[in-house]
Amino acid sequence: MLLSDTLMAKEGCSACPIRHRAVCARCDSDELSRLEEMKYYRTYEAGQHIIWSGDRMDFVGSVVKGIATLTQTMEDGRTQMVGLLLPSDFVGRPGREGSAYDVTATTEVVMCCFRRKPFERMMEETPHVAHRLLQMTLDELDAAREWMLVLGRKTAREKIASLLSIIARRSTLLEQQAADDGVAIDLPLTREAMADYLGLTLETVSRQVSALKRDGVIVLDGKRRILIPDMERLLEEAGDDSDGGLPV
Amino acid sequence: MLLSDTLMAKEGCSACPIRHRAVCARCDSDELSRLEEMKYYRTYEAGQHIIWSGDRMDFVGSVVKGIATLTQTMEDGRTQMVGLLLPSDFVGRPGREGSAYDVTATTEVVMCCFRRKPFERMMEETPHVAHRLLQMTLDELDAAREWMLVLGRKTAREKIASLLSIIARRSTLLEQQAADDGVAIDLPLTREAMADYLGLTLETVSRQVSALKRDGVIVLDGKRRILIPDMERLLEEAGDDSDGGLPV
DNA sequence: TCCTTTCCTTGACCCAGATCAAGCGCAGAG
DNA sequence: CTCTGCGCTTGATCTGGGTCAAGGAAAGGA
């Protein structure tokens, strides 16, 4: 999700400030009102499963509030997070029956949903929506591939720094804070969830967070609130070649 | 790419047996002839770069013949393969200027290409194409996420088995061999390329391939040709929960 | 108030896979 | 036919991160 779109999302339809614009930034008013009639909201508590892997999925939607995770689990219990869903992120696969992943609410989550069939029908008729979804999916694909580099080739310290910089980038985009004297992020994940995202154990995550703190790369305010005094420094630690990077 | 589509691809337009159907399985003849006028072919030698990361990319296309890889590289030289392109796979990002990855020909590769701008224009006008591309991109996203589990949580032995089963699945789909008495695959990758795909070193790849051979899970015929006497056994070794799996 | 639970930290030790190093085998060049 | 180089294998050793284990701290709940 690009900055400009996020801004548009903020000034979007009053009932659902993010979703309409996120799904289709260029819909005309007819299409907007059709979307309006179709939509409904659902709230999930922290820890609740939104979708189980293998489940039949009869809706698609966007996260409006809160944070959800996409995870895959092997029979023996090893789990890997494959996506992090922040407000404005889309959930669901138009044209697919089932979900391949577990989707779980990390905090309380509000979703804006559409029943899948009518949504798919509308997608067929309104090219803009399909086009927008293609762009969003390409963004997700880029993010997934960037994460493959993190998982396959980075050290534990670099992995932590990568995760923090991605979360920092996304939350500064959403909150639009200038961040001249450092960025503060509210870490929405437990150490275990971070470990599942990074392909590490929670002990290693804890140790590396402590190490980054000891070395002055980050400042902890409690367990979950993290201050990043120097973003450049963090990106260096992450081994990122450019400050830019892809939308996640 | 689904089995049914691959079959359709095989009986598709004579000049380019795979591409038209791959891009749009449901185009009517007008659209097909427009595609026909736009297309051109390019051949790349083994080892040649098709696209450099960061390059402006003025075309999109499909692999018709040969194998190409998608890789990401850090400044210090660590590299991670993020995709494997077999015949019928699509290359390029409609709506994007540059490529985020290096695309390299592993064998001799024939690509069927379209200049990006006209292709994008056509995409706007023919919803089927956009829809088809969305489906293909969703497949790639699923494959990327499945790979995240491999990279983040599997052991070296499981990683090798996962790679072999994915290549076996894909090549049996393409070649349509029944494979009752085992599957034979022509490994199109060096040990180093396999290592880059799996987030390992080439020594570890070599050792684990030897171990799988010793344990009778695979049979080597030279360095590159691999026989899989029992596919179920291999999938077990890969730690895959189901024999099914996603299209890659 | 104390107790329980959940999340986190830190230490001690171990092992899978990395690193360093040597050598094999085959294909193409001379 | 030998030489050379590349891809591959295998051995020896090292180490980053996993595993096991012991608490600490903060947030409810009784």
From TrEMBL, chains A, B:
Entry's Gene Ontology cellular component terms: cytosol
Gene Ontology MF, one: DNA-binding transcription factor activity
Domain (Cyclic nucleotide-binding) ranges: 23-140
Domain of life assignment: Bacteria
InterPro entries, A to Z: cNMP-bd_dom, cNMP-bd_dom_sf, Env_Response_Regulators, HTH_CRP, RmlC-like_jellyroll, Tscrpt_reg_HTH_Crp-type_CS, WH-like_DNA-bd_sf, WH_DNA-bd_sf
Pfam families according to UniProt: cNMP_binding, HTH_Crp_2
PROSITE patterns from the UniProt entry: CNMP_BINDING_3, HTH_CRP_1, HTH_CRP_2
HTH crp-type domain ranges (all copies): 154-232
CDD domains: CAP_ED, HTH_CRP
Record bears the keyword DNA-binding: yes
Keywords linked to the UniProt accession: DNA-binding, Transcription, Transcription regulation
Descriptive protein name: Transcriptional activator protein FnrL
Organism: Primorskyibacter flagellatus
Gene it is expressed from: fnrL
